[in-house]
Design goal:
Structural class: mainly alpha
Radius of gyration: 42 Å
Distance between the termini: 80 Å
Number of helices: 19
Order of helices and strands: HHHHHHHHHHHHHHHHHHH
Number of strands: 0
Length: about 400
């Protein structure tokens, strides 16, 4: 409050000074030409007195009058020019009106986009407020009640099959395969609440064998059931999943979405930017991130360059171009892409999927030694991520089994 009183007083003082300056003549004294005219008129009177006293002859008086008259004309011309310049300058009313308009516009803009009456909030206080709001956010069940029910099923055969499967599982509550099948079909029908409840049963049955992917799928179903809202329960499922598979793309996408919802764009931005830079163009979360990330960066107050986080991998245009090449040209393009991927992983790193892709590509090209080196390097990079190691091991075994099996246009 003290700040606004001081700022208002300062604005009034400055405005008064500007208005006073605008209302004052250009100079504090009469123009020089006006003084010159007065002097010349006095000189003319003195000439007449000197002529009467006999100090000057008529001829001398005439010459003196002519010279003084010339000076009078020059001084009068200079005085008129000065008055014209004064008239052309902005008047008091115009300056005052402009100043008032500027003040009104400034106040109007602040009242529109500012927060009158609110003091500045330090960063730690802002974060504390966000955490307080987080603690009060709706639970999963409350959020689901505000979401419209799924539309009637279009695939009646699937709907009938799901109804039958529910009945079967009432009698066989520990049937892991049946519950897993139910999750996918409930989701396909848009019954996301039923899907996440079925997924929770899958997790219970698996016990110690549950994977991070199961928890992330559970979180995703809850988020979809709540209309995109990340509830405390969905957040807990995400945390469990990402603790087991930190590089999971879907999990990282929903983590960034949660931060954005909760007023922490500073945390959402790096999560999404890193995920986008490591993803292929066809990854399911790419388009959604691209639509939101610029706004998230703006709110976070961070300069952002979309090109710097463009998805990696061949685009659809590149794939189409490759399919139109002769076998030799296709091979050259594939090798160039493989070498580009290898260079990126060696300098920037990448996701487990990227490493597995490179191993598979080397196997297809018959470069088993290169595949072995990449596999060994990946063991170090992902030593503490079991799911990533499993993915890379599977890719390596497949690459060794099918080494050199590239078939382009019917040839090896």
């Amino acid at each position: 409050m003290i700040f606004w009183i001081a700022a208002g007083a300062l604005a009034v003082i400055v405005a008064a000074m500007v208005v006073a300056a605008a209302g004052r003549p250009r100079g504090d004294q009469t123009p020089t030409a006006a003084y010159d005219l007065k002097v010349y008129r006095d000189q003319l009177r003195e000439v007449e007195k000197d002529l009467a006293r006999g100090v000057l002859t008529e001829e001398e008086a005439a010459r003196t009058r002519t010279e003084i008259g010339r000076r009078v004309l020059a001084a009068d011309k200079a005085l008129q020019a000065a008055q014209t310049a004064d008239d052309a300058s902005p008047g008091f009313g115009l300056v005052a009106a402009g100043l008032i308009a500027a003040i009104v516009m400034s106040v109007g803009v602040y009242l529109t986009i500012g927060a009158p009456g609110y003091g500045d909030l330090p960063l730690d206080r802002r974060i504390a407020i966000v955490e307080e709001v987080r603690s009060l956010r709706p639970a999963q069940s409350d959020a689901e009640r505000g979401v419209e029910a799924a539309p009637p099923a279009i695939d009646q055969n699937r709907a009938d099959m799901v109804a039958e499967l529910r009945t079967i599982l009432e009698r066989r509550p520990d049937d892991l395969e049946g519950w897993t099948l139910l999750v996918g079909n409930e989701a396909a029908l848009g019954n996301f609440r039923a899907a996440h409840l079925a997924q929770s049963r899958v997790i219970q049955i698996l016990g110690d064998d549950v994977t991070g992917r199961h928890h992330i799928d559970h979180a995703e179903m809850m988020i979809l059931a709540a209309g995109g809202y990340v509830s405390p329960e969905a957040e807990a499922a995400l945390e469990r999943g990402l603790a087991m598979v930190p590089r999971d793309g879907a999990g990282r996408y929903f983590l960034g979405q949660m931060y954005a919802q909760q007023g922490r764009p500073d945390l959402a931005l790096p999560v999404w930017a890193n995920l986008l830079s490591e993803s292929t163009p066809d990854a399911p979360w790419v388009q959604s991130i691209q639509l939101q990330i610029a706004d998230v960066a703006r709110i976070a107050g961070v300069p952002f360059d979309m090109a710097a986080v463009a998805p990696r991998g061949p685009s659809e245009a590149e794939i189409q171009a490759a399919s139109e090449l002769a076998p030799e040209g296709q091979m050259a393009m594939i090798e160039a892409m493989v070498e580009g991927l290898a260079a990126r992983l060696s300098t920037e790193g990448g996701s487990p999927q990227d490493w597995a892709q490179l191993i598979t590509a080397y196997g297809v090209l018959g470069r088993t030694n290169a595949a072995q080196i990449v596999h060994d390097d990946a063991q170090t990079v992902f030593a503490d991520i079991p799911d990533a190691l499993q993915l890379i091991d599977d890719a390596f075994r497949a690459a060794m089994a099918g080494a050199g099996g590239l078939d382009i246009g019917g040839g090896q």
